[in-house]
Model the fold of this input.
Amino acid sequence: MECVYNFSLKELQKKLILKGFSRYSAKQIFAWIYKERVQDFSLMTNIAKDKREELTKMFYFLNFKTLKKEKSKDGTQKYLFQLVDQEAIEAVLIPEKQRNTLCLSTQVGCKFNCKFCASKTGGFIRNLEVSEIVNQYLQLSQKDKITNIVFMGIGEPFDNFKNVVKSIEILTEPAGLNFTNKRISISTCGLSDKIKKIAELELGVKLSISLHAVLDEKRNKIMPVNKIYPLADLVKAIKYYNQRQKFPVTFEYILLADFNIGGQDAKRLAKLVKTTRAKLNLIPYNPTGATLRPPEFAKIDNFKKILKKENIIFTLRKERGSDINAACGQLRSVSLGGSKN
Ligand code: SAH
Done:
């Protein structure tokens, strides 16, 4: 048996047509699953009874067990879900005035070893299946209406490229969930070849780049991936993306004390933002036990002043859910025995 959440509409149609279903009834089944959220084929009353029985033999519906659910003072909700192989992943729901953002995981663990990030705890275990990505959305959208999706949970989305792209196809399929593509963002640590690849697909989703340093020597220290895809390479890929996609990319920049918020850092960052079509999002560091620290307020202020003088527009992301370990991979890391601070 296979999990039905693994298949895009096209794939389901192809599979079911081989079993004697019509293209139209396959679309009806897809609508039952995603529009009506039915998890029992026998309830699909406009499908012939023998066909419903056949479906029951072919597919099952995945439901995660919730291992932990935490709610922050600011309303952020974090879920720790158990997978069939007993592994665990997190999904976070971040309510704001105008929006309700869902943060999805794409892998169990992560290969990329960023120094500031808790997702690497326990190493890399495996990619998530399409159904495991889609099911995070299905379970968290039962009570709350989700307005935005960000692929910023555990894992590197571009290291699970095929499954992430297919999960986006499913989430945005008009016959099903019909989620608006421009309200979806993928965040990457900077896999240049995949940035080019996504630029060529007509997905219409947005792209964030975890930048965090604008000099190779510095970026190498906190993001080992920079040794494989150095900044010059990354910038080339971003320019390629800029030529093909109408949305600018967003640079994510964690503010780290005595590391990346000096005057020269600000000037280099400004130059990079100007030479690409990009927005800038400054992020307060959520300490994860590494030697890194968040900067003092005055230092951040100075950094912001230089950026303003350089005519750079930026946002400073509000820190959300730090009282419930809501930074990437923190909840899973704590439950695996890692420390928060
Ligand atoms: N692998 C992807 C997506 C996961 S991380 C990527 O690297 O983009 C999502 C965002 O959270 C990234 O911008 C990442 O750099 C940031 N992040 C990770 N750990 C953090 C921490 N402790 N404090 C603040 N931001 C963090």
Remarks:
- The CA atoms of residues 32 and 38 lie 6 Å apart.
- Confidence is low (pLDDT under 50) at residues 337-341.
- The two ends are 43 Å apart (CA to CA).
